[in-house]
Amino acid sequence: MQGRPTDSLSFNSIMSMTSLVAMAALMLLTSCTVCDGSAPGSSRRLLQVDDSSSAQSSFRMTMMHRDHVDSPLRDASGNYSFTERLKSAIARGKVRSKSVRRVIAKLTESNSSHPREAELLGVKSKVASQQGEYVVNFQLGTPPQSFVAILDSGSDLNWVQCSTRKSRINTPNPPFNPSTTSTYKKSPCGTTFCNSLPLPRISCTSTCEYQYGYGDGTTSIGDLSLETLQLASTTGGYRRVPNFAFGCGQENYGDLAGSDGIVGIGQGPLSMPSQLGSVLGKRFAFCLVGMYEATTTTSPLVIGGDAFWPSNGSLWTPIVKNARSPTYYYLQVECIKIAGKCLSIPASAFNIASNGAGGTILDTGTTMTELLPAAYNVLIAGLKTAVKFPQMDGSWYGFDLCFDTSSSVAAPVFPKISFRFSWSDFTLPDDNVFLNVDVDVYCLAINSGYGINIIGNIQLQNFYVFVNKDTNVIGWKPAQCDTIKRELEPSSRTIDALMFRQEAALLDRTCARWQRFVKSSGRLYKKSSYAHMPCLPPSAERGLTNILCEPPMPVTGRMPVLKSESKIDLMRRVSGTTPPSLL
């Protein structure tokens, strides 16, 4: 049996050094209660919430499905059956996924994610089709003007139609009028916000203009502007955020499907979560109501500390970076399971290629999950064997695979389908994968696609999905989305949940500093095999003790003593104390 490699330091010397590192880290933890992760002496934040009490709160926006009775996107021609609504959603989803693939293909065929187009006077960016399934409400200006916009996880720029120049898009509310607000201003050239537009400016004389082109031909041309954003707070009332960057769309063409604009929740610096993250923490969460109840129920989009839900059953996976396509949320799929068993799908079906192509993204605008043929064909073959109901033609409904369940006396039971992500399984409830489209007819809500795998919104429905950009993870937990808004009210929170949220925010702010300190001051310790301990993702079962964990590191030797300890456990053991913020 192979022995443990000999370390250059003795265990006692390692522990002594670790103690020094830990004590310094404790001082850092206790002195960092108001730090925001910026370097000392750095410029102040551009965004500031104008009510100091909001420091412990978050923003909440009401989301509704486009088929909701109050949605401006709802087809006013009549009440449609579930099957009719589903067929329309599938058709929209195919348009959307085609646009997503076209955009990503364009990004990955060049040497940069920001290719120049010299023929344009302004900034032109190619993003996915705006056709979305969910809308949110928000207000801009002083006094505030109200808008309803499509929620889009595949874009960053927030924009609304403005009243200047011309437009060929019908909107449910009057266009934004810059002349009636006292807090409006155009963004100058050369600012961080202007430089964050997906394509670098070719020429800019004074103020920043943009041209945002969507995959389906919809275009918005206008001024990148700064205005006061007003949103509801999770602690009651409203909060106002000055200098929120958005697009004042002066020339808009195409189909916004009855909305006033777009709210981008992508990973870029212009997205709403990214901008508000500078004052509320880089985290947000959403919960999509299911298709069955979509016409009468709503759910929340939460930005800030309350987006973190410390509850049993939460699972996590890291966000995968793709430099060629930085806006989308990429996840690493390791396998697809039927009834708990991984299918024999080649890893190349899930991996991102060297040019940025391929991989798997989450997309709120695509209706159904779409898989590359190498994965889809294996899944279909496995289901045809595992499902005992007779197969039937589902083309009329818009599906590739359907089953006749008329022989079942009780509610039909299907084998569970799971996506094995890094760290966790994403197991789909039957309602999210086998849709009851007609009497005794259930269809697989997964289709074949090309270029990239897309996890669609049907698979995300009735999951509370939370994104933490500070730790670069996405989490999820099954939920009844139309009841989440009540759980977010202050009166319904437990003391433990409040303490967990507040302390988690502190830990997020200190996480990066602690890791940097260890790397700079504990190099000798890091060289030892004792430092290379397993690191588990944070979860409610393990509590806060693993929040400071880095992603798993390679193990260089045997660790009989420290195998099960997290870094914060090690700090506690060698120092003999526990920071108050970690109790």
Automatic annotation (TrEMBL):
The keyword Signal applies. CDD domains: pepsin_A_like_plant. InterPro entries: Aspartic_peptidase_A1, Aspartic_peptidase_AS, Pepsin-like_plant, PEPTIDASE_A1, Peptidase_aspartic_dom_sf, Plant_Aspart_Prot_A1, TAXi_C, TAXi_N. GO terms for biological process: proteolysis. Transmembrane segments: none annotated. One of its GO terms (cellular component) is extracellular region. The active site is at D152, D363. Residues 1-37 form the signal peptide. Belongs to the peptidase A1 family. PANTHER family: ASPARTIC PROTEINASE CDR1-LIKE, OS07G0603500 PROTEIN-RELATED. This is Peptidase A1 domain-containing protein. The lineage of its organism: Eukaryota, Viridiplantae, Streptophyta, Embryophyta, Marchantiophyta.
